[in-house]
Amino acid sequence: MKKFLTCTYLNLIPGFILTFRRMVMTIFGGHFTIQYPEEHYPFRQGFRGEHRLKQDELGRPKCVACLMCQTACPANCITIVATESPWPDREKVPQSFQIDLLRCIYCGMCEEACPCDAIELTPKHMQAAYFREDKVYDLTRLLHNTE
Ligand code: SF4
Ligand code: SF4
């Protein structure tokens, strides 16, 4: 019994040290809270948030409606309708491009599968919305989904 109690109390010591260290850091300038939503916690490099469709130097969508991202998506949340391109340098363009962000698992497979570097996952992460439809992003929204 005595041995058990000794072991139990010894195990508490690292916890006390950690708590004491945090207390000292807080008192002498360090703080662990941020004023959300005015302030945001800085995410690590490579964080995968909301999608953005990129545009080329002429302001056209870089997407050529090849459907590779739609095929690669494990959550089946990308829906693309292709149409004939008005420009001679590509065969197709997306007539509509939808991503259901409520089904998305932010795996990044769409970004990896794209042969044109046309889609990327940005650090944007504000997921709150009043209606489900607000989280289904269309072509226009995806093209202008910047910070
Ligand atoms: S991040 Fe993954 S789940 Fe989300 S749209 Fe891209 S491929 Fe689909
Ligand atoms: S893989 Fe790229 S080019 Fe192909 S449809 Fe998706 S975003 Fe467009």
Supply Rg. 24 Å
Task: Give the amount of beta strand, in percent.
Answer: 15-25%
Number of DSSP-assigned strands: 5
By secondary-structure content and strand pairing, the structural class works out as: alpha+beta
Low-confidence stretches: none
| CATH topology value of the largest domain | Alpha-Beta Plaits
Shape: elongated
Lateral arrangement of strands in the main beta sheet: 2-3-5
The small molecules bound here are: iron/sulfur cluster
**N-end to C-end Cα span:** 60 Å
CATH top level of the largest domain is: Alpha Beta
**Main beta-sheet strand count, sense and barrel state:** 3 strands, antiparallel
What's the total helix number?
4
The averaged pLDDT comes out at 91
Question: What would you note in describing this structure?
Answer:
The chain has about 150 residues and is α+β, with helices and mostly antiparallel strands. It folds into two domains: about 30 residues; about 90 residues, Alpha-Beta Plaits. The protein has four helices and five strands. Strands 2-3-5 form a three-stranded antiparallel beta sheet. A two-stranded antiparallel sheet has the order 1-4. A hairpin with a 7-residue loop joins β2 and β3. The radius of gyration is 24 Å and the shape is elongated. It starts with a helix and ends with a helix. The mean pLDDT is about 90. The protein binds iron/sulfur cluster (2 copies). One iron/sulfur cluster binds next to α3.
